[in-house]
């Protein structure tokens, strides 16, 4: 009898873990840390200067990533935007024009910020619908800004907010420094933030090789979040 109860409890736990519902408005900056795995995310694209190389590397390594795109860049490079889906990656909303909400917060009321943010998300949503016919589930704020308003908007607009565990490719680095810094910050459940930049694309093969050498798996964002 005791054994049976134990089996039932374990089964319940397992099904519960597997069927974790997508909670809109939820905020994550790390994934599940009980496994040696990490997820890759790339921001601010599409940028044709770096995207093709990044896609080629990920494809070779059979890695699926999430790209947080700007509506303003999709308008500029619609053909590049189509490649995300062709290569089997996920696309997230990174707003239309990458406003600095840390600055806006000093000048605007939360209601005004809410209005601006909704416009920025909607505009990108419309462009994504027209260009690649998707409505993203993931959303990342410019500069990782977070506030009760952001969570409210995410919930209303049916988004899950994603920040990151580590990222540094917007700072001044050489390729070797980038590789070193990313590999130093690998840990179970890490969500890595990178950008569609030339130098990042150059460092990517070594970063991936290092992650794998340390015994980590590179998995899609939804997998590391368990949703
Ligand atoms: Zn950004």
What is shown here, in short?
The protein has about 230 residues and is α/β, with parallel strands linked by helices.
Helix percent band: 40-55%
CATH architecture heading:
Alpha-Beta Barrel
**In the CATH hierarchy, what is the superfamily?**
Glycoside hydrolase/deacetylase
> What's the N-to-C terminus distance?
33 Å
Summing up helix and strand content along with how strands pair, one would put the structural category as: alpha/beta
Q: Round the mean pLDDT to the nearest integer and report it.
A: 93
Q: What fraction strand?
A: 5-15%
Largest sheet: 5 strands, parallel
CATH topology: TIM Barrel
In the CATH scheme, the class would be Alpha Beta
Bound molecules: zinc ion
Q: SSE order in H/E notation?
A: HEEHEHHEHHEHEHEHEH
Tally of strands: 8
Give the overall silhouette.
Answer: globular
